[in-house]
Queue: 2 jobs
Job 1
Amino acid sequence: MRLILLGPPGAGKGTQAERLVNEYGIKQLSTGEMLRAAVAAKTPVGLKVASILEKGELVSDEIVCAIISDRVDEPDCENGFILDGFPRTIAQAEALDKLLEEKKLTLDGVVEIRVDEGILLGRIERRASESVDGPRADDNAEALKKRLAVYSAQTAPLVDYYAKTGLLKTVDGMQDIDGVFASIKQALED
Ligand code: ADP
C-alpha cells in the first residue's frame, strides 16, 4: 500500500503514520525527519537546509524530490510506504506523479487529516513542551506561524489536486487518536 498523509503541522500526521506502519507493515517516509537527521549529522544537504528548517520555510523541491526518489527504491519500501510531509507543493506533487510513473508504482490513497486551524498553535506548543528530546528547532512561535502560513498557501491546494484524481480521503482530525485512526482505516478499506 502506498499512501500520502496530508494535513497542517499539528494535525497528527506523525502519530497516525506510526499506527498505519504497524497496521499495514509499510514504511513511514517523513521528509521532515529525514531533513532533521541530515542537519544533525551535518551532511552536505543538512548544512544547506539547517537555517531553512529553523525559519519554517520550505526546502527546495529539488532536494526533497531527490531524497524521496532514492528512498522509495530501498528494499524496506517494497511493501509500500506512507509519505508524511511530502509532497508539500503542487510542483512536488507533479514531480511525485512523474517519479512514480517512472518506477511503475501507483498510489492507493491520499489521506487528508482535517482539523480546525484554531487548535494548531496550542497543539504544537504542547508537543514542544512535552518532547523528551527538547523542542524542535522550528517549534517556536515565529517558525510555527510561518509553517502554518506556508501550509495554507502552498500545501492546502494539494487537497483539490488529489480530489481530482479520486484518491482523496478526508477524515475528521478533531476526534481522539483512536477515532482518527479508525476513520482512516475505514476510508482506506471502503
Ligand atoms: P511540520 O510539523 O511542520 O509538518 P515536518 O517535520 O513535516 O513539520 O517538516 C519540518 C520542516 O522540514 C518544514 O518546515 C520544511 O522546512 C522542511 N520540509 C519537510 N518536508 C518538506 C518538503 N516536502 N518540501 C520542502 N520542505 C520540507
Note: Residues 9, 31-32, 35, 52-53, 56-59, 64, 85-86, 88, 92, 138, 147 surround adenosine-5'-diphosphate (CB under 6 Å).
Job 2
Amino acid sequence: MTERAYVVDQMISAKTIAARVEALAREIEAAFAGTDKLIVVGLLRGSFVFIADLVRELALPVEVDFLEASSYGNAMESAREVRILKDLRGEIAGRDVLVVEDIVDTGFTLSHVVTLLRNREPRRLETIALLDKPSRREVPIRATWTGFEIPDEFVVGYGIDFAQRNRNLPYIGKVRFT
Ligand code: IMP
Ligand code: MG
C-alpha cells in the first residue's frame, strides 16, 4: 500500500486549524467553567497533535490521559468490533471527561469509547473531534464539538496518518494517488 505513489494536497492550513482550535477552546472553557475535575482523554495515536494544541489553549485546570482503541472490520458481520489496546492510567469516576478524537468516520470507535467510559460513571463526559466525515456514518453519533466537517476523502497530517506516515505535516491534506 505504501508502495503506491501519492501526493498530499493541502485541504486545511495550519493557520486555519490554529484559529479553529482557539475558538473550540473558548467553547470548552465556557462549557466546563469552574471545574477542577477535568481530564482530557486523547485517543491514540491520531489525536496527539490536536490534544497538544488544544490543552495549551485551555485556561482551565486540566489533566491529560490517553486511550488507544483499534477498530477492525469483520467480514462476517456488519458491525465492527473495537478493541482497547491501551487503557487509561487514571480513574474517571466523578470526574469531567473530554474525549479527543482525530476523525469521526463510521462512528464505531467513538461510540464504543463513549459507552466504555460512561460505564465508569464520570460526572460529565463530552467529546471533541477535529474532523468529521458525516457522509461515512454508520453509527448515529456526533461529537459535542467538531473542528471541521469534511467530505469523504482520505486525509493525513496534524497527527493523522496514512500507513503511519504524514502525522508530522502541520496541515490537513488529502491523499491523491498519482
Ligand atoms: P471510525 O470508527 O470509522 O469512526 O474510525 C475513526 C478512525 O478511523 C479515526 O480515528 C482514524 O484513525 C481512522 N480514519 C478515518 N478516516 C481517516 C482518514 O481519512 N485518514 C486517516 N485515518 C482515518
Ligand atoms: Mg483514530
Note: The domain at 14-149 is CATH 3.40.50.2020 (Rossmann fold).
